Structure formats: structure tokens, C-alpha cells
Task: structure prediction
Amino acid sequence: MILIGENLNIMSQTLGPAIRGRDPGPIQEMAKRETEAGVDYIDLNIGPARKAGDELMSWVVSTVQEATDKPLSLDTTNVVAMEAGLKVRKGPSLINSISPVRADEELPFIEKYGADMIGLLWGREGMPRDADERAMLTMELTMQANAMGIPNEKIWIDPIVSPVSVEINQVKACVEFMSMLQEIAPGCKSTVGLSNISNGTPDNLRPHLNRTYMIMLMKHGLYSAIVDAFDEELNMIARGKMPEIVNLVHRMMDGDKPDFSSLSQKELEYAKTVRVLTGEA
Ligand code: THG
Result:
């Protein structure tokens, strides 16, 4: 799996002030640490950046590409800021993100700057309510992109993960949608903002929810995820180093009910978390 590090973001207590104050030190330090942690892409999340977003994104991209050769994911809803970042970028970029709502303005960037894109399934009426609405938005976005000569292989569909603390049906809908994606849009890649799943839950539970949900989505071919670069166990799962745990989770999704008293402590953590994320507990 392709991992995109989420840690360089303007919401961060330490990096937010550094980004706003144009202090390169902490930002380059984080880019280097994420690179050493082994992520494949580094997400640069400057938020909506309504004020002078173009100058902000071009500064962040220039600053980070001095510190690392990793591909970058440019994360902003500000179209002008997105293009400013792409203009100064010297290596590969992932546009994070283009939704059907902003497609007219941003799809031309794919060809112009040789980028890939995350296709965020955010519709005119906001968040899709179920797997079928996600399928409709995927059709809409890929047809518009294909008509401009953009192949599905350049589109990383993001079904929008929402917190387990908010709506269990949405948690299930993303898993169901992932199982449909290759039929709806053959060749499309996929990604999720994985940490969204554990938003609003106690800090000690977050890694368990993130890791288990990633494994559940992997069952249906999840291609990449935006993740905490420093979660080592998550890294190991994504690199295929915990096949027994992956197997356990996938078997439970197929209806297998393991005898909890026969599981190791680690297996038990995952098995219990599967029951939460499938709505059984
Ligand atoms: N899809 C796409 N892009 C996305 C998201 C998505 N970008 C933003 C977000 N969701 C993914 N990035 C993050 C970044 C940080 C956190 C969660 C998701 C996070 N941070 C900790 C917190 O808030 O508690 C720590 C913050 C810090 O660094 O201090 O949870 O869904 N395409």
C-alpha cells in the first residue's frame, strides 16, 4: 500500500504557527522525519487558506522540496493556492483534492502539471449518505475526467471516511463502496483520510481504530491511505509484515466468529475493534 503522511498540517499545535509565521525549520524537520519514517508521499495540508493562499502554498511547497525528494500531496480546497503550489513544484504531485463540485476549474491541472488527483466524493448536497450516492459521484467525476482525456489510473477516489463516534452506517458504507469501486470505475485507485475514523475518540483508542479500519478497507483493495507517519504498527500492516492479523480481521468480515479465549492479547485488540467497526458491538 501507498502511505501518505498526514503530519504536516496547519491544524498542528507546533506546525500551524510555523506555517503562518513562514518559519522553515520545523516544517523541514517534519518533512525529514516523515521521509525517515518511510511514507511514500507527504501531505501538505494548509486548510482552506482563504487569505493569500497562493503565496502560502508556494512557500510551503518550496520549503518542503528543499528538505525531501518524496512526492508531495497538495492539500487545500483553495483552487488558486493549488495552482500556485503546482507551479513551483519540481517533482511529482498529487492534487488533494478535486470533488465533482470543483472539477471544472481543477481537472485541467492534471494534464497541465502532470499530476495525479484525489477524487473526493463530496457532492453538491454535501456528504454522500450511503454507498450508492458514492457510486453516483464516482461516475460523475470519472466521466467528466475521462471526457478530458484523464484516465482512471490517475484518479484516487476518496469515499470520505467519517468518525465511528458519529455514524456507524457511514463507517459501513465506505467499506461497502470500496468493494464496488472496481466495477464502477475500473482502474481507479483509492485513498482515505484514515485518522478521520477515530476523530473524537480517546487518544489511546485512536491507533487501534485506525489500524483495524485500514485492514478492513484493504480487504477490498484499498490502494493508499493518508495516515500518521509515525504509527509503526500501521506501517508494518501496510508493508505486509502482519499477515496473521490481517487474516484474522478478514476472516471475521466473512462471518467467522473466533473463540476470543484462544486469541493472543494483540489478536484480541484487533478482534474487539472489528466488532466495533462493523457495528456488532
Ligand atoms: N481526505 C483527504 N484529505 C484529507 C482528509 C481526508 N486531508 C485532511 C485530513 N482528512 C487528513 N489529515 C489529517 C491530519 C491530522 C489529523 C487527522 C487527519 C489528526 N491530527 C491530530 C489531532 O487532530 O488530534 C494531531 C494534530 C497535530 O499534529 O498536532 O488527527 O479525509 N483527501
User: Anything to note?
Assistant: The chain has a mean pLDDT of 97. The first strand starts at residue 2 and ends at 5. Strands lie at 2-5, 41-45, 72-75, 93-98, 116-120, 155-158, 189-190, 224-227.
